[in-house]
Amino acid sequence: MFNDRSTPLSLLKTRRSGKPRELVAPGPGREQLLEMIGIASRTPDHGKLFPWRFVIVPDEARDGLAAELGAIVMAEKEGAGPRDVEAAEQFARQAPALVVLLSTPTPGHKIPVWEQELSAGAVAMNLLHAAHAMGFAGSWITGWAAYSDAVRDLFGKAGERIAGFVFIGTPERALEERPRPLLSEIVQFWRTGYGQDA
Prior knowledge:
Radius of gyration: 19 Å
Strand content: 15-25%
Helix content: 25-40%
CATH architecture: 3-Layer(aba) Sandwich
CATH topology: NADH Oxidase
Largest sheet: 5 strands, antiparallel
Distance between the termini: 24 Å
């Protein structure tokens, strides 16, 4: 059964991403969104550094974000035109809720930056699980905007990186299952050969 949230295991087994453009109202309210983020922050974090943070883009700020992204894509993409601007604006307006996740590592700390960045990825996954557990679907997206310093500067500062844009809403149609790897393809028992008994 798809989207089965009847038990913790069934919830984990049925979570999958929805396409941001296909996530519609109703979306999570402010308190629900904050609860999801609280759940997401309960993630492995070696050193208790909290090397990540969240920026919620509320409905009333979406048009402003769309305009900013449109201007940035025109400035940064060679040969950009109206279609690129339109795509950037549509990106900003997808789904009822948008959370920008920033990776905020502490350089020079005894905890390697790589481990701090892995923690940011774990936070994103926890946010998607929390959304699913509360009856919504989410989508963790990067794309050109995640790698643009100008876009990053809308939400953070130098030294931080956009780990992803997390869109949350209600799927407008049933989510389809995607191909998953066979355990025999991804599991190895050490020193016994690849995929045996998996």
